[in-house]
Amino acid sequence: MDTVQAIIQQQIEAGTFLQSVQQGQQVQPEQTNYGEEEEFEDEEGTYKGKRSNTLPIWGNQVTMNLNTLVLENIRESYYYKNNLVEIDSFQTLVEQIFYQVKHLEPWEKGTRRLQGMTGMCGGVRGVGAGGVVSSAYCLLFRLFNLRISRKQLISMLNSRQSVYIRGIGFMYIRYTQPPADLWYWLEPYLDDDSEIDPRSGGGDLMSFGQMV
């Protein structure tokens, strides 16, 4: 006898079954709380509850945590203002990476104006006095504004079309994902021996494991 039948039988024996039907009451089994999250493991790792397809954004929700000078050059670049701003399709942006991106540095080779600059503005940590910002960073920032999904980011990391699609996927993680999640994202690729040259102008071939 199932739960509903048992309840009905109890009401019949107690003489309350017809009364409950006349009053429009529904006979329902005892409710079980299935809302509690449990920790489990799938092909993406171990986590609590169902991992949302919506990615969190860590840090500044507007600047993507970019250096101010790089950000200003992106927003003022011809490529960004006249090409990328109008694109609201993830697949179209990925196609742009395939055709336009040849390295992962913020500046195009030979365009940074470093004369007279010192300290942080003297080239430390990739910060220069401006120049022609790279298509890689323009596309990275456009993907950020599009707020790509978890599935879309994973598709970039595992792309077979271009190593630079993968490279920008890893950069997106580094700039936007919570520090506590970095190991979850990057650990599977530490032994990846596929190669990429991230330097503007080339000459710095390395494996994805090294880059990660």
Query: Any idea what the shape is?
Result: elongated
Structural class by secondary-structure content: mainly alpha
Average pLDDT rating: 81
Cα end-to-end separation? 59 Å
Biggest sheet strand order reads: 1-2
Q: Topology as H/E string?
A: HHEEHHHHHHHEEH
In which range does the helix fraction lie?
Answer: 40-55%
- The number of helical runs is 10
Radius of gyration: 27 Å
* Portion in strands: 5-15%
Biggest β-sheet, characterized?
Answer: 2 strands, antiparallel
Low-confidence spans: 20-49, 116-128
Strand tally is 4
What does this structure look like?
This protein is mainly alpha-helical. The chain has a domain at 58-110 and 131-211. It has helices spanning 3-14, 17-22, 68-76, 78-84, 90-100, 135-146, 150-157, 163-176, 182-186, 208-211, and strands at 39-42, 45-48, 195-196, 206-207. The chain has a two-stranded antiparallel sheet with strand order 1-2. Strands 3-4 form a two-stranded antiparallel sheet. A hairpin with a 2-residue loop joins β1 and β2 (45-48). α6 packs across α8. The longest helix has 14 residues, at 163-176. It comes from Caenorhabditis brenneri (Nematode worm). This is Pre-mRNA-splicing factor 38. Belongs to the PRP38 family.
